[in-house]
Amino acid sequence: MSQTSNPESLEGLAVPSEYFPIQRSASPTPLLSLNRFPQKQENKPSHTITHGENSVLSLACSDRYIFTGSQGPHIQIWNLITFQQEAVLKGHLGGVLCLTLSNDQKMLFSSSGDCTVRVWDVDTLKCLYVIQVCDVGDLFSVVYCDELDTVYIGCQNTSILRFDLSTKENHQTHNFPYSCNYSKFFDNIPPTTNACEIISSVEEEEIDAKICAEQENVCRYEVHDCMIYMNSHDGYVYSLLLGENKDGRILLSGK
């Protein structure tokens, strides 16, 4: 006949743990809060805007408009109140990778895979001028410092560009920067019939944008080598942000 011993009478004896399982207290965190996919999603989006089949790569918002950029070269403008599309900005020849506004919301800056930054008048929705640079790859990020009237650009070749708009007339050019016939997003796809079918929606916008660029009459300004800070990172400069500390205005960059 077996007899169950009292744990208190077994002091000093090695007793297998399976005889006396550990009694767990209640978890301080409800298990439901650890679920990555909650059963109820109370905060659902009120509106959704799309670029057709293109991924949205960049966003900016003013008191009046939402600006969206995508793999295609066009910038879509949406009414902030009604969420209806109001206009399309044409001119870039590559995907619109970054959008940012000046502090007074009078200028919109857009950087692209076509090696240019375009400056737009938010009131007239017209392109004011184009800043262009060669041999740095895609322009992933752009910020504008109102106090210095200066544009900072983050590039694919790990460099950061600095362009002083107050001296832009000294750097005017009539040349166009080199740009690929196909979106760099699909560089690994050879120019075959199947490839053209894959990028057809983007390519149609690029053809339309090229026609608009050839017909437009805007000034172009070129970034010179002295404005390029090479090897700012050891990778693509995907993001830029202006900040301020005890030393004054600072530029933050991420890769």
UniProtKB/TrEMBL annotation:
> Which keywords describe this protein according to UniProt?
Repeat, WD repeat
WD repeats sit at 89-130
InterPro entries in alphabetical order = WD40/YVTN_repeat-like_dom_sf, WD40_repeat_CS, WD40_repeat_dom_sf, WD40_rpt
Signal sequence span is: none
Asked if the Swiss-Prot or TrEMBL record annotates the protein with the keyword Repeat, the reply is: yes
- The answer to whether the entry has keyword Repeat is yes
Q: What is this protein called?
A: Utp13p
Name the source organism: Rhizophagus irregularis (strain DAOM 197198w) (Glomus intraradices)
